[in-house]
Amino acid sequence: MATESLNAGDAYDLEEEDRLHRGISPRMLLFFVLGDILGAGIYARVGGVAGEVGGAIWLAFLVAMTLAIFTAFSYVELVTKFPGAAGAALYVHKAYRMPFFTFMVAFAVVASGISSSSAVARAFAGRYLEAFVSVPEVPVALLFILVLALINFRGISESIKVNIGMTLVELSGLLLILGIGIVTLVNGDGDPGRAFSFKEDRNLVFAVLGGAAVGFYALLGFEDAVNMAEETQDPVRVFPRALLGGMLIAGVLYLAIGFIASTVVDPATLAGSSGPLLEVVEASPVSIPSRFFSAIALIAIANTALINMIMASRVVYGMARQGVIPSVMGTTHSARRTPWVAIIFTTLIALVLVTYGSLGDLADTTVALLLLVFAIVNVSVLVLRRTPVAHRHFVTPAVLPVIGAVTCLILLVQLLRDDLQDDGKILWFGGGLLLVGLVLWGLNMLAQDRLEPNPGRTAQRHA
Question: What is the pLDDT of residue 150?
């Protein structure tokens, strides 16, 4: 049976013959989770965290990781209870049975992918690229987005093995930073005391929360792994260990890197750089070619952006195929068999964001959108407790989704509070992206109304 529209009852329920092949082993899933979390976030946002909290970057990451784990527990229960390849949209649909609400949550996820890719484009055109060539940032970022679109259009056969390879590249760069930290501490270089310093002109609690909200961007990605549930061997047993284990490994790495970064480089320099880890490499006592490390960082950044744009265009395509946005978005190219209209649509939005948004603004917009989604998902766990399933699944303590929802809202309020004190771009970008989704929904409703026959005229015709 084909998947029905979101306007129908169980839009995301699949019959057994439509299930995907379960070919992902526990180890492969762990690397997939780790690879989704590692990447552009840690390479680009360490400086942003330093700008909020000062030298105690590790503490901000610790708070961000702790808060993210609450939400991860909710995802673990939901993915083992409903192991379908639709993520947050699946859970929200099952919990509330409100097609418009489900659509807006799904589109918020799409919007977060586009804004994240746009942030990454600005990071790609920044400090790491300067190790090879000095060029204007905005034109390079725009070109970067267009190249991603061409690759996306050409068609990419993504596999877990490729993801593992890219993860190893990303991980190698982070291990280099760890090595730098060890050598620095052994030689007595650097200033470990900076790792325990805070911004003097800011309230301590707000500084840590602000740093955690910015650092949350580096931990994003764990939520994408739930889309692999249908293809995972024994997901009920494997997913809790892989998802939570991958987050803990990434979190420990981030704590160490945050400590090392402020030990080797003063927080003000980190805060002013779009390539903060390159600042650590160049200031370290270890002789590592800047171009070598920059190449690793650029690979990590490009991989993150490409994955996000592929995800965004495919979700737009999927929503068009399910009849919840204009059907033209589901058009595929006759030769390449790629969703070219959806690719153009997502690319145009990314080009606008790259033109008007900075790395920090776009990364924070991504976090704001996903914090809103996470809060809804945490509440959905409790709502779906009233919906039993026939198979065993992980059950998280009821207090954790409550804490997860509350902490997501606290971080969201903190982000928006800082944004309103600045230029309000997060509200503009986030609100604008959701407005685009609302317009698509409205256009689709108008198109469907025009296609439906008028009952009165039909009756007159048959009279």
Answer: 87
pLDDT: which is higher, 145 or 462 = 145
Domain assignment present for residue 226? The answer is yes
| CATH number (domain holding residue 221) | 1.20.1740.10
Do the Cβ atoms of 426 and 361 come closer than 8 Å? yes
Rounded (5°) CA angle 277-281-283: 110
Contact yes or no for 271/51 (Cβ under 8 A) = yes
The whole-angstrom separation of Cα 57 and Cα 277 is 13
Is-contact 219 247, C-beta < 8 A? yes
Q: How many domains does the chain have?
A: 1
From residue 123, give the alpha-carbon distance in Å to each of 199, 297, 355: 24, 10, 13
Residue 19 CA to residue 28 CA, distance in Å, equals 19
Residue 302 lies in a domain: yes
**CB contact at 8 A, 300 and 96:** no
- Specify the DSSP element, H or E, that contains 216: helix 204-219
List, in sequence order, every residue forming a beta bridge with 232; answer none if it has no partner: 24
Contact 330, 321 (CB under 8 A): yes
87/230 Cα distance (integer angstroms): 11
For residue 50, give both structure tokens: 């330093």
Question: pTM above 0.90?
Answer: no
Q: Are 225 and 32 in contact (CB under 8 A)?
A: yes
Single-letter residue type at 7: N
Q: Among 64-73, 90-99, 276-285, where is mean pLDDT lowest?
A: 90-99
Q: Residue 187 belongs to what domain range?
A: 22-448
Interatomic CA distance for residues 359 and 319, integer angstroms:
29
Cβ neighbours of 99 (radius 10 Å): 17
E strand spans, 131-239? none
- Identity of the amino acid at 418: D
Q: What is the dihedral of CA 108, 338, 140, 273, to 10 degrees?
A: 40
Cβ contact 183:26 at 8 Å:
no
Q: Assess if residue 454 is contained within a domain.
A: no
Helices (H), 16-98: 26-37, 40-53, 57-81, 88-96
Query: Is 457 domain-assigned?
Result: no
According to DSSP, residue 232 is labeled: B
For 209-251, the pLDDT digits (tens) are 999 999 999 988 887 777 666 667 777 788 888 889 999 999 9
15-53, pLDDT tens digit by residue? 444 444 555 677 877 877 887 788 788 999 999 999 999
Q: Give the contacts of 124 (CB within 8 A, at least 6 positions apart).
A: 140, 141, 144, 298, 301, 302, 305
